[in-house]
């Protein structure tokens, strides 16, 4: 499928497309940028830092991968959205670096919805405990803008749909219990190349698509 088609399909649903450019060169990213794309996602801090200098500075960079606390300092000055807040120790670090950079850093809570062990994220039954600790500490330099999740890697569309619906329930729960008066708690980041159509049908408003745009990755 060509880029323009994917882009239209996503903007017709009112969702934001994050083009996942990990493993791809600044030249390849530039080609997609020239087609009007501005949101790009990377999953490794070092790789992101290696690329940004070669690319226009109006790109909105998303950190979509597991984030080590000691790397937050590199991205804090410019990152558009961190999708992978999943523990208090990381919140503490983001807050500290946000303070230094004098910016409130937008984040999403990464929720574990897949059955696979390897996926990072908060367990659904630990979300309230996380939120209570988080609110106690009054982090002034973090904004939680929504949730992020990844479905199990499976052909079974029913399983994927169920997991996305679970993420929708988590979002509603968080909204009602902790963010009811917060107009900025709005983002539901889920859906990748293989499952973004189901994601848009279920209510996703931010999809992260890599291989469908850039082709297969060579690691
Ligand atoms: C790589 C990646 C994607 C995109 O995967 P594709 O299957 O290439 O679309 C989305 N989200 C995260 C967190 C990723 O690491």
Give the proportion of residues in helices.
Answer: 25-40%
Write down the secondary-structure element order: HEHEHEHEHEEHEHEHEH
Radius of gyration: 17 Å
What is the residue-mean pLDDT, rounded to a whole number? 96
Number of helices: 9
Residue share in β-strands: 15-25%
Structure summary, number of beta strands? 9
Biggest sheet, open or closed, and with what strands and sense?
9 strands, parallel
List low-confidence stretches. none
Question: What ligands are attached or bound here?
Answer: pyridoxal-5'-phosphate
Gross morphology? globular
Briefly note the structural class of the backbone. Answer: alpha/beta
Distance between the termini: 23 Å
Describe the structure.
With 219 residues, the protein is of the alpha/beta class. Helices cover 40% and strands 20% of the residues. It is built from nine helices and nine strands. Strands 1, 2, 3, 4, 5, 6, 7, 8 and 9 form a nine-stranded parallel β-sheet that branches. It starts with a helix and ends in a 5-residue tail after the last helix. The mean pLDDT is 96. It binds pyridoxal-5'-phosphate (PLP). Residues 20, 22, 43, 64-65, 150, 192-194, 208-212 line the site of pyridoxal-5'-phosphate.
């Amino acid at each position: 499928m060509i880029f323009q088609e994917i882009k239209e399909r996503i903007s017709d649903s009112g969702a934001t497309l994050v083009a996942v450019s990990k493993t791809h060169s600044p030249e390849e990213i530039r080609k997609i940028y020239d087609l009007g794309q501005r949101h790009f996602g990377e999953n490794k801090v070092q790789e992101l830092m290696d690329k940004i200098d070669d690319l226009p500075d109006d790109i909105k960079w998303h950190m979509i991968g597991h984030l080590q606390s000691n790397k937050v300092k590199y991205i804090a000055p410019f990152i558009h959205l961190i999708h992978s807040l999943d523990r208090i120790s990381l919140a503490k670090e983001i807050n500290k670096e946000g303070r230094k950079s004098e910016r409130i850093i937008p984040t999403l809570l990464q929720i574990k919805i897949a059955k696979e062990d390897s996926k990072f994220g908060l367990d659904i039954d630990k979300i309230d405990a996380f939120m209570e600790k988080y609110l106690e500490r009054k982090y002034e330099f973090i904004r939680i803008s929504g949730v992020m999740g990844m479905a199990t890697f499976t052909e079974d569309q029913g399983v994927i749909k169920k997991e996305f619906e679970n993420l929708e329930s988590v979002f509603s729960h968080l909204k009602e219990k902790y963010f009811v008066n917060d107009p900025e708690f709005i983002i539901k980041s889920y859906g990748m190349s293989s499952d973004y159509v189901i994601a848009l049908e279920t209510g996703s408003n931010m999809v992260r698509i890599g291989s469908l745009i850039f082709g297969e990755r060579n690691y």
